[in-house]
Write a structure and sequence with these properties.
Helix 4 packs parallel to helix 5. By secondary structure, the chain is of the alpha/beta class. The longest helix has 12 residues. A nine-stranded mixed β-sheet has the order 1-15-13-5-7-11-12-4-14. Strands 2-3 form a two-stranded antiparallel ribbon. Strands 6-10 form a two-stranded parallel ribbon. The chain contains five helices and 15 strands. The relative contact order is 0.22. It binds oxo(2-sulfanylphenyl)acetic acid and manganese (II) ion. Manganese (II) ion (MN) binds next to strand 4.
Length: 262
């Protein structure tokens, strides 16, 4: 290795000066999946399921393996720009052809956990983001912006999807805030703890599903179903989030790691 920054990184990982935080939820049949309003007849994503092929037995005496099945947007997962109609015409907008540079970047963690606890329909505004910037400095171009709602702490409960008669109630974004992040800050994308990058009530926002609409329209990415955002500093962590290389894929379950200095 000739580059000293890589030598330093390996040494810092070995000594514990740099640690790795796993931001991934375990993928299992109980993993929550998005429920879109049924009246529109919109498609349904397969939940995660798993089937044992063999386990050192008559079906395969020396090996253990499983088949699994799920939608691309299941559990902790990546949203590629092609996922949304607004992102369909960008070059290299799928999981297999996106620039791999988009899979590694610095993270800005905006804490809206108190607001989300007080109001499950909390929408992050430009003002809220600017208040964060006053404390921590401007969000740099090429950053992942992570929305800490602490929603992942209730992942096994009905409160995670928080379904009411009028649909899901979980935190999200004001449309202007997404435009600001995409256009004024030129971020890589946003990451959230909820089941999707938009609010539970995003079907009745204008535009509908503003985060998907605007972020993917600007060729940006998304990460949903993250956890452990409370273990990250507001600034300084490096996110590693490469999706599976599915040909023409719109996203995929993804292991998401953060490098953090202690
Ligand atoms: C399809 C339609 C609406 C939404 C989503 C997917 C997601 O959240 C997703 O996983 O990308 S809101
Ligand atoms: Mn998704």
């Amino acid at each position: 290795m000739s580059n000293s920054s890589l030598i330093n990184l390996v040494q810092d990982l070995a000594s514990g000066k740099v640690t790795i935080v796993d931001l991934t939820a375990t993928l299992e049949p109980a993993s929550p999946t998005l429920k879109l309003p049924e009246e529109f007849g919109w498609g349904k994503s397969w939940p995660f399921s798993i089937e044992e092929i063999s386990r050192y037995d008559e079906r395969g005496p020396f090996w253990y393996w499983n088949n699994f099945k799920c939608g691309e947007h299941t559990g902790t997962h990546f949203d590629a720009p092609v996922h949304w109609v607004t992102g369909q015409d960008h070059n290299d907008n799928c999981t297999d052809n996106m620039p791999v540079e988009n899979f590694v970047g610095p993270a800005c963690v905006i804490d809206a956990s108190a607001e989300s606890a007080a109001d499950p329909d909390f929408l992050m505004s430009i003002d809220f983001i600017k208040q964060w910037e006053e404390k921590h400095g401007m969000i740099e171009a090429g950053s992942w912006v992570l929305y800490r709602s602490d929603w992942s702490k209730i992942i096994t409960s009905d409160k995670y999807l928080n379904m009411q008669a009028d649909g899901s109630h979980t935190p999200g974004w004001e449309p202007d805030a997404v435009v600001f992040l995409a256009e004024q800050r030129n971020i890589l994308g946003v990451g959230v703890e909820t089941v999707g990058t938009d609010a539970g009530q995003a079907a009745v926002q204008d535009p509908m599903f503003p985060c998907h609409n605007i972020m993917h329209g600007a060729n940006k990415c998304g990460l949903a179903g993250l956890k452990n955002l409370d273990k990250l500093p507001a600034k300084g962590a490096i996110l590693i989030a490469p999706p599976l290389k599915i040909k023409g894929g719109s996203g995929s379950p993804t292991r998401v790691l953060a490098l953090v200095t202690s």
